[in-house]
Structure formats: structure tokens, C-alpha cells
């Protein structure tokens, strides 16, 4: 055992268990909201792309890095979302040889629905533990992500 390692607490779940359980519940709620609006052709893997594409467009290499996917896996998901009508590839105005991945009107609609649902989830979860406590926990986790990204040499947001 490393000298600075602390034993795991016995009165709470370990960090990995907390994160996995929250992510599972989060995804379930997002998909339920999508299904309520007739969006039934998306898979969980698509969330990695949708959650990182933004509305202004992004190059495939940057999207793969943000989504923490291999370039091949990211390209496959983008191709699938393009076939489904959610994304399109456009020439990058900064470099005509490069392409930007951009949401279509249908994709922007789904992103807006997801954004609304995420806000509802944050409010509901905040109500469960207290809004201030939830906001504090989110800020701490965000700082942790920033610090870990900086350790890797950059921040992918």
C-alpha cells in the first residue's frame, strides 16, 4: 500500500461505484425524456458524442478527445448519427480540407431536449440532498476534472 493511501470508508460507496450508479440513473432519465418526445433510435454510446459535439461544430479529432473515444470509435458513432439525421459534416471555414461535425436541425432539437432534461435532473437531484449541497458537490467534482485534465496537459471542455 502506498504511504499516502487512506483506507476506503465503510460508511459510503467508493468513488467508482458512486459515479457509475449516478451515470446509469442519469442516462436512464435522459433516454426516458427522449422517448417521451419520440426519439427512440439513439443508444447510450451516442451520448458520448452528443454530450461533446456542441452546436458550433467540432473537428473529429477534438470530438474524440472530448468524448474519450478512439478516433475510429468516434467516427463510427458520428457516421451512425449522420445516417440517422442528427449530425452532418461541413467544411471547416478555418481550413477547407478539414470537416466540422455539426448538429442538424433534428440534432439541435434533441440537444435542446437533453439540455432541458439535464436541468430538470439537476433540480430534482438537488432537491433530494439540498440545492446548495448539490451545487457544492458539482463544483468540487468540476474542480477535480479540471485538475486531472491539467495533469494530463490540457482541459477538454
Give a structural overview.
The model has no long low-confidence stretch (mean pLDDT 90). The protein has 157 residues and is mainly alpha-helical. It has a two-stranded antiparallel sheet with strand order 1-2. It has 6 helices and 2 strands; from the N terminus they run ααααββαα. It has one domain (16-151): Winged helix-like DNA-binding domain superfamily/Winged helix DNA-binding domain (Arc Repressor Mutant, subunit A, Orthogonal Bundle). α1 (15-36) packs across α5 (105-129), α2 packs across α3 and α5 (105-129) crosses α6. It is 63% helix and 10% strand. The longest helix has 25 residues, at 105-129.
Describe the secondary-structure layout:
Blueprint: H1 15-36, H2 44-53, H3 60-67, H4 71-83, E1 87-92, E2 95-103, H5 105-129, H6 131-151
Helix pairs in contact: 1-5, 2-3, 3-4, 5-6
Briefly summarize what is shown.
The chain has about 160 residues and is mostly helical.
Features:
globular; two-stranded antiparallel ribbon; Arc Repressor Mutant, subunit A; 157 residues; mainly alpha
In spatial order, strands of the major sheet run 1-2
Query: What's the total helix number?
Result: 6
Just give the CATH class: Mainly Alpha
Indicate the CATH architecture: Orthogonal Bundle
Mean pLDDT: 90
Portion of residues in helices?
55-70%
- N- to C-terminal distance: 34 Å
Amino acid at each position: 500500500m502506498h504511504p499516502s493511501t487512506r483506507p476506503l470508508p465503510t460508511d459510503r460507496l467508493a468513488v467508482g461505484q458512486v459515479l457509475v450508479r449516478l451515470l446509469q440513473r442519469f442516462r436512464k432519465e435522459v433516454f426516458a425524456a427522449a422517448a417521451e418526445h419520440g426519439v427512440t433510435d439513439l443508444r447510450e454510446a451516442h451520448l458520448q458524442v452528443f454530450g461533446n459535439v456542441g452546436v458550433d461544430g467540432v473537428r473529429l479529432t477534438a470530438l474524440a478527445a472530448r468524448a474519450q473515444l478512439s478516433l475510429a470509435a468516434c467516427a463510427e458513432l458520428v457516421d451512425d448519427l449522420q445516417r440517422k439525421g442528427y449530425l452532418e459534416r461541413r467544411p471547416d471555414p478555418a481550413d477547407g480540407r478539414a470537416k466540422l461535425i455539426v448538429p442538424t436541425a433534428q440534432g439541435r432539437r434533441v440537444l435542446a431536449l437533453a439540455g432541458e432534461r439535464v436541468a430538470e435532473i439537476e433540480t430534482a437531484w438537488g432537491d433530494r440532498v439540498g440545492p446548495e449541497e448539490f451545487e457544492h458537490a458539482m463544483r468540487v467534482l468540476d474542480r477535480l476534472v479540471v485538475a486531472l485534465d491539467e495533469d494530463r496537459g490540457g482541459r477538454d471542455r
